[in-house]
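Input (structure):
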């Protein structure tokens, strides 16, 4: 409890209501800005207020990720600092849910996870949900594929069984889902397949898909009209840019053919564990390369 403070009025408002907790933290793989973009979208479209504020000074490495300051003429006028917060959010139907946003903790992962589990126990949290994006060889002209994972395999019946195992660098959200499973609490995640050639840019189509998954999983009504509008705009932008590249239509046609063949063969959900792991490793390596520093 030394890690966080409670906003009492917001806390009491949901103390007796079953709620879902969505955790979307910055700092790990985020192809298409699926994680960050989903959090930002929810906060922009839904009424919200802090319910739990973490003492981020204990958790953040400021020399690794520095806050920004605004300098105006002769003085520092504004500080844009980091915050790790659980928000109480109301969807379009006035239903409450919780949203954990901010930077992934740089240290004390087990202690922070224990704090979140403590909060989930004190409040009637029914399940934890998260989402991420992974760069894959898929076309932007086809529906976004989603790989789901959960502490209870029974809630992910569409995924083919992964016979083989894979080890990848972990995130705090992975740990949180793992601890939820140990505590007997349902944890679920949705991995959006983002076209590899768009991995470094916002990809609203994938964000819209994972938001829809949140709505279905927790019976929420997060409004989607604005993100669908953004998706239409980005599709027009991609179309215009692609028209200037003589090679891209051939690449896109090959990806579309591969995608269609995969679906026609019955593989509705996707790549093997090795392919997901390799994609994560590549993306993380790109983020750590000198040109991205």
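Output (sequence):
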């Amino acid at each position: 409890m030394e890690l966080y403070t409670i906003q009492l009025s917001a806390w009491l408002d949901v103390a007796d209501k079953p709620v879902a907790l969505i955790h979307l933290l910055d700092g790990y793989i985020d192809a298409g800005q699926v994680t960050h973009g989903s959090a930002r979208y929810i906060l922009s479209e839904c009424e919200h207020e802090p319910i739990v504020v973490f003492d981020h000074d204990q958790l953040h490495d400021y020399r690794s990720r520095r806050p920004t300051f605004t300098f105006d003429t002769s003085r520092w006028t504004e500080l844009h600092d980091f915050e790790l917060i659980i928000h109480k959010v109301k969807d379009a139907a006035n239903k409450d849910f919780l949203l954990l946003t901010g930077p992934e903790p740089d240290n004390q992962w087990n202690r922070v996870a224990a704090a979140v589990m403590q909060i989930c126990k004190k409040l009637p949290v029914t399940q934890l949900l998260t989402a991420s994006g992974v760069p894959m060889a898929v076309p932007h002209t086809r529906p976004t594929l989603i790989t789901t994972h959960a502490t209870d395999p029974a809630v992910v019946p569409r995924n083919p069984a992964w016979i083989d195992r894979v080890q990848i660098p972990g995130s705090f959200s992975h740990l949180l889902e793992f601890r939820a499973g140990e505590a007997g609490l349902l944890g679920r995640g949705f991995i959006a397949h983002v076209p590899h050639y768009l991995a470094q840019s916002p990809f609203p189509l994938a964000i819209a898909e994972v938001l829809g998954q949140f709505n279905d999983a927790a019976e929420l009504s997060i409004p989607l009209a604005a993100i669908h509008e953004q998706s239409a705009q980005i599709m027009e932008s991609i179309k215009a840019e692609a028209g200037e590249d003589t090679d891209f239509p051939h690449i896109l046609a090959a990806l579309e053919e591969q995608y269609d063949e995969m679906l026609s063969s019955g593989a509705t959900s996707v790549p093997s564990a090795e392919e997901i792991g390799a994609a994560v490793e590549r993306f993380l390596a790109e983020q750590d390369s000198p040109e991205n520093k």
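Notes: The domain at 4-292 is CATH 3.40.50.10900 (Rossmann fold). Helices lie at 8-14, 34-45, 109-122, 172-182, 204-218, 225-242, 248-264, 273-288.
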